[in-house]
Amino acid sequence: MSLIDSVSLPRNFRLPRVDGLVQWIVPLAIVAIWQVASVTGFVPVRVLPAPSDVALAGWKLLLSGELIRNIWVSFWRASIGFLIGGSIGFAFGLANGLSQLSAKLTDTTLQMVRNVPHLALIPLVILWFGIDESAKLFLVALGVFFPIYLNTLHGIRTVDPQLIEMGRIYGMSDSELFRRVIFPGALPSIFVGIRFALGIMWLTLIVAETIAASSGLGYMAMQAREFMLIDVVVLSILIYALLGKLADSASRVLERLTLSWHPAFQKR
Amino acid sequence: MQTALRTSLPETELASRANFAPAARVAREERPLHVSGLPLSIRGLQKSFGDNEVLRGIDLHIPAGQFVAIVGKSGCGKSTLLRLIAGLEKIDAGSISFGDAAIQPEDIRVMFQEPRLLPWARVLSNVEVGLGRDRSSSDAHARAEKALTEVGLTDKRDQWPSVLSGGQKQRVALARALVSRPRVLAFDEPLGALDALTRISMQRLLERVWRDQGFTAILVTHDVAEAVALADRVLVIDEGRIAHDVMVNTARPRERGSAELASLEGSILSHLLSADDRT
């Protein structure tokens, strides 16, 4: 017995801090291999600059304030566009999930609009808004709208009808039923929508900034291309990756906080 | 009306009365300690779903505080009868009345086969749901805790329902049904999904809270053994009518598997099966 214990103990033993770092092993390894390949000349600098060069370019842009300004502009556009599109999508999802009439009135139209790739609207949007802020906000909001709308609607429609009957029997008013039963029941699905929407948010913004903008990360990358500053181009791409990861982590934290009742989010 | 129904009493019931008269007298003293239940009168109750006539005229009087079990083949209308009593379906014809008292929604509660707990609410909050309009009152917590104590789950008050076993979930559902001190409690096969041992301990729990609180209990079940073990009276429903109305006068606490209960169970089963042969 004691033998088994002493053997199995180290296998189950884990440092909690190391656990959180495991996910970064692969990205760091890729960067390390990349650095080695660049330094040895295996990858020509004109194709892909070394990570150290990219970091140096980042440091210079950081010192000039340009990097922070551009990240801030992009972040601001992304969040405002997400808030606008997300809240409209959420509102339509609620309305169409709760009211048959509202669903009959609007769902067909929304499904038709959904099937138009929103990036195909870029020429039209430039004609409407120019290369102003509103053009970018419009495109991000439009892109974010659909995943949030669809998943909110799905979440509300699939709340267990037995629970709704239970709520009615126990005398819940409509608002109480929504607060205690329908909304919490739809929440897991709403979070799926949010995570999809975050991906679409970055995608839309970068495309829009690359095509028509005078500031932001996409603009910075396009400017750098004009001057053949390949290290800045690579830097922008890496920053997209980090921002995307950041948005995803934020939604995960939110998910864990609000869905702690869900068996899938319980600590084992 | 009672006398009219009594004409359909089977011989076994009369026989059991004759043979177990002393036991019957003890049973009278083992009534609920204080009767808070409501009497229930049903007259000419009919209900159909489309062309399907489910209930074809039910006449029934249940005295306050009685424990009635309703048995029958599946599809005989027993669950529909219960849903009508609980006000979950609309009556086509006839009436259901609860004595002369003005009733509140909190006076009548239902317990289903599924626990129907809110997965996103802790056990204690789930019990508080049962308070109905009193949910926001200041003693909501205390009342919910008291109900949890009655079903023996005080230590689970801060757990999520997903970590509870099937029997524990059903006990939380019972606490939720009890917390508003209902005067009529309707059970729709509440133990149907539980394993045999958990069933027996749940049956004991149901009997205990019924005796402590004295509500009128209506239990729909497909298990005749459960019906005779728990109820004062067993109604057999066949083709939308009350086919048999059997009194169970055995003293409480009842001994599970006793010859008396077994013979009663056997006679009710033979009624159910003979109805089956006719069709």
Kindly estimate the percentage of residues of chain A that lie in beta strands according to DSSP: under 5%
Largest interface: A-B, 20 and 22 residues
**Beta fraction of the residues of chain B?**
15-25%
Beta strand count of chain B: 9
Radius of gyration of chain B in whole Å, from Cα?
A: 19 Å
From the coordinates shown, what is the CATH architecture of chain A? Orthogonal Bundle
CATH T-level fold name of chain A = MetI-like fold
Walk me through this protein's architecture:
The complex is a heterodimer of chains A (268) and B (279). Chain A has 268 residues and is an all-alpha fold. Chain A has helices spanning 2-12, 16-21, 25-39, 51-64, 66-98, 100-114, 122-129, 133-157, 161-169, 174-211, 217-226, 230-258. In chain A, α10 packs parallel to α11 and α10 packs antiparallel against α12. The two termini of chain A are 25 Å apart. Residues 1-12 of chain A have low confidence and may be disordered. Chain B is of the alpha/beta class. Helix content of chain B is 38%, strand content 21%. In chain B, the strands form 2 sheets. Chain B has a 6-stranded mixed beta sheet, sandwiched between helices. A 3-stranded antiparallel beta sheet of chain B has the order 2-1-4, covered by helices on one side. In chain B, α6 packs across α7 and α9 (224-230) crosses α10. The A-B interface holds A 162-163, 165-167, 169-172, 180-181, 184-185, 187, 259-263, 266 and B 86, 88, 105-106, 109-110, 112, 114, 116, 118-121, 129-130, 132-133, 160-163, 176. Chain B: It comes from Bradyrhizobium rifense. Chain B: One of its GO terms (biological process) is alkanesulfonate transmembrane transport.
